Amino acid sequence: LQFLQNLFQNAIEGGMKDADHDAAAGARTFAAVLGVRVEDGDLVMGRGFLASGLAIKAVGLGVLAFTVAYLVDPEDVLMTVAVVALVALFATVMMVTLGRFMRRRVRFDRSRLKRTFSIHEMATFAATMAAFIPLIGLVTFVALLLLPVVWFAMANKLLFGHALEPGV
Quick check: is 157 in a domain? Predict the structure, then answer.
């Protein structure tokens, strides 16, 4: 799961966020090779790039679903329903945010993209942690869920002046 998430962050989100700089520098990135470019203030993405990003996410969701199915105890109905509901909730946030930026053409606003990426990353992390509730327990899940979000927001606010927008 983490490999797929890192791949998505670097190849897809990073390529989108830096499309203008990469083009100006003549960089041959995954995104540039697959047709990502800034055109008239819009971020334009090639079909191959979109398909690659969506495929990475689809495989990730498949692995996540398999993890849930493997870890939950079907006899513990309450735990099973809670885990499935939490994973579904966070996966919905992932899909909604994904729909905001994984389109053929979106407005190229680096700040807005980074905020959307941040929400998407937090939802992905939360869905992953929720899948492991049967192993780690609810208290550990809540701690693992809140600590990175609080740390991320505090560090970004301190370093960059915005809680959800890293200055990268």
Answer: no
